Amino acid sequence: MSDDEFAQEESRFDDLLRSLGHRDSAEVRREIEASREYVDRRLEFLLANEQSSEAGAAHETTSAADFLAIPTDESPASISPLRRTDLEKTSDLLDNADPTGHVQDDRHMTPEVRMNDSLDALLARSAPPTTPSTAQLSTTLNFLVADTEERGGRRRRRPARLLAGAALAAVTFGAGAAANAAGLLPHWGPSDPSARHVQVMTSAAGGCTATYAVTPLDDNSDAAADAMIAAQRFLATFDTDGIDVAAAVDDYSRATADTSGPDSAGPDTQTQIQVLAIGAELYARLKGELEARGIDPALVTITSFDNCDYGSQP
Amino acid sequence: MTRLSPDERAETREFLRETSPALLRYFERRVDPRDDAADLLSETLLIAWKKIDKTSQWESDRRRAWMYTIAAHVLSNHRRTARRRHTLADALRSTIRNTPQAPDDSEMGAVRDAVSRLPESQRELVRLVHWDGLSLNEAAQVLGLNASTVRSRYGVAKKSLRDALSAESERMEAVLDH
After folding, report:
1. Looking at CA atoms only, how far is residue B107 from chain A in angstroms?
2. What is the ipTM for the molecules in this complex?
3. Fold for the domain defined by B106-178
4. What is the pLDDT of residues A229-239, one digit of tens each?
5. Considering the domain boundaries, does residue A314 fall inside one?
6. What is the 3-state secondary structure (H, E, C) of A244-256?
């Protein structure tokens, strides 16, 4: 490389570093001068190693030490003490560093590691945006995990599918024994300003707790937002003691009597039936409330979550 | 699948809760429409739950990589077959749709393009490490490669990216000069 080419490349790299805004470009430039030849050799070695790997060579022996090792045409004795130190430091960093590039100790950074650090920062920032972490997202994921537990461990047909009647299809009943109210409740309730769920507690189902939350369905319209607000208000003021559990169970039993096909695993437990019946009754009342207000009830759904023990019941 | 004890169930539940946000981001960055991520996450969690007992003695890093391995298989299947929608995933789908995305850094387009131009074997490695935060060892497990191959491949990918971005920087300068 000629002096002019070298100066040109250095200037270009200097600009790149400055544009990244992470490093003192003058300081990096000084260090580059001392070690750029070394960097080039290492990169050449990497390329050669990659090519030999793809050609089916015995690349299993390529360790982190090999990664930075001296090429065979260069004996260790010919390496200056400064470069040997760089080798050791860089090898340590590569062996121990966080691969996302956030190397902690700046004092031990060689120029190539600094270059890596800047590139790593760029790469990390290049990740496409995703849904921000919110209380609502957390709650929804908790629901999903709990439902996974129920689906992963169940032997029976999913109770919600027994509610396949048109009026009840939107009711999503979940976790059964998987429920751990203590793990979810902090995310719920009117006191949570970001929540779109309202908690309704009941002790009707054999002393366990069933929690019902309203969640939106696929719709980003104003109508859906209005439906959510109306549903939240309804649930916030709804008195579950007003539900006649026995009547709800009868209604539920009748509604589901004809839906138990040959693949049904058998009857639900009494507790399970109570939880489902209360949920169905709650949804029916919510549906009536929304329809009375001229709101499409299909814009929202109700999901229940409970900590009832179904295992030993008939 | 063996029956999990109550403690194991609680531990598994917590593990999935901790892992699910990162897995959701993993899918969101790789599927279009983005909210398909909801169904893929749901499927991944279910597979993990059914097979979790085999990981009981594993270190957390290995377990995490195992989750990404499942996710990669689910993603691969998703690209071949019609998606299976699940009711609760619809709630998550709705959450994704109704929550504004974090603002995109428009300047990162060139970097993303450079990553997308890498050979597939390097591209996914870079994404796993820099977008999903996996270590090289974890990425090796997800990709089914040995660690030394992944390290070598990663070095080459970084070199390619560095060259590509330098070239892009030069190109932009030339445009500005004219």
Report:
1. 9
2. 0.74
3. Arc Repressor Mutant, subunit A (1.10.10)
4. 888 778 777 77
5. no
6. CHHHHHHHHHHHH
